[in-house]
Write a structure and sequence with these properties.
Layout: H1 10-19, H2 46-50, H3 57-70, H4 75-87, H5 91-104, H6 109-122, H7 130-142, H8 147-159, H9 163-176, H10 184-197, H11 203-208, H12 231-238, H13 242-262, H14 267-279, H15 283-296, H16 301-310
Helix pairs in contact: 1-8, 1-10, 3-4, 4-5, 4-6, 5-6, 6-7, 7-8, 8-9, 9-10, 12-13, 13-14, 14-15, 15-16
């Protein structure tokens, strides 16, 4: 963006559009999801639920509002509500929810980067508001590898005219990105597009970057062989009253934990457990599962941590 220009230029707008591809949120890898719809445990009833229809966004928001209303100190509930608002394009509401989450758990980098993104998307005339940049900096201060914050701080460099610096930061992020990560191709396209606009040769540098670690496609982590919550089971649970939903889902997760206790070398099973815990917003349990998985499989530690990073498990 040129000095004195208030509205974002072509590059800034393109980057903000591309930013959605790197929005890594703890609930984004829900066991039940096939799209970007949130997986908060909103009760679904009636014919739509029996057919496995996606939860109504308004119902999801209402359920999460009820959750934080009943427990205003539920940081994970506020995070999930912020995400649900964000997906509904209610950015001001999303900002308020994420601010509550960061106030409750100020040491969570994901909460801060989520807040930063909501502030960016909610700004009508500034592609990188100061409070958004501060939120991203806070996230990086907690976790230097936080990918969304790294992405947007590079956007800030580009908007300030430091195109080479922005591209270098994105290339560094791409180098740390596990192969198959959902934002990998979007990030490559961003680098290529910005480089083309500003006539920066990145072909050799892009070609030299090898994937940090292989990552199987989402949903392919041996789900058929793991007695954990499958998509159909989670859909069946959604038709039950809230209390019974929780009991059913926890029962399936407990069954998975029992299988892993008997066979701790089953890395795919650990990954499924971590995903299930993150789906439920149980970040502490997800972190504990990650640590247990690493302890049981030290030779697979890098892969486990890469998977946990993709799921935005705190403390990776």
């Amino acid at each position: 963006m040129t000095e004195g220009t208030k509205a974002p230029g072509r590059t800034g707008r393109m980057l903000l559009i591309g930013a959605a591809g790197i929005a890594i949120l703890s609930v984004a890898y829900a066991v039940t999801r096939e799209s970007d719809a949130p997986s908060a445990p909103a009760p679904a009833t009636g014919p739509a639920a029996m057919k496995g229809a996606a939860p109504d966004p308004a119902a999801v928001i209402q359920e999460l509002q009820n959750r934080v209303g009943a427990n205003p100190n539920d940081a994970e509930g506020w995070q999930m509500l912020g995400w649900a608002y964000f997906e509904a394009n209610r950015y001001a509401d999303s900002v308020r929810a994420y601010k509550r989450a960061t106030a409750l758990v100020p040491g969570n980098a994901t909460f801060w980067s989520s807040l930063g993104e909501a502030l960016v998307m909610g700004s009508a005339d500034n592609p990188m508001p100061d409070d958004a940049a501060k939120a991203f900096e806070k996230a990086i201060g907690i976790d230097a590898k936080e990918p969304r914050a790294r992405y947007f701080l590079a956007v800030r460099k580009d908007l300030k005219g430091d195109h080479d610096g922005a591209i270098a930061d994105w290339l560094a992020l791409l180098k740390d990105t596990p192969s198959g990560a959902p934002w990998e191709q979007d990030l490559r396209r961003t680098i290529e597009q910005v480089a083309r606009i500003h006539k920066v040769d990145v072909a050799a540098r892009l070609a030299a970057i090898k994937p940090a670690a292989p990552h199987p496609a989402l949903g392919s982590v041996a789900t058929a062989a793991i007695p954990g919550p499958t998509r159909d089971q989670m859909q069946a649970a959604s038709a039950l009253p809230k209390g019974q939903q929780d009991q059913m889902i926890e029962g399936m997760i407990s069954s998975l934990e029992g299988k892993l206790k008997a066979n701790p070398a089953y890395v795919d099973g650990w990954i499924m457990l971590i995903r299930s815990r993150m789906t439920l917003g149980q970040t502490a349990q997800a972190n504990a599962a990650m640590k247990n998985a690493v302890a049981a499989n030290p030779t697979q530690a890098k892969r486990i941590r890469d998977e946990a990073n993709l799921l935005s498990v705190p403390g990776v």
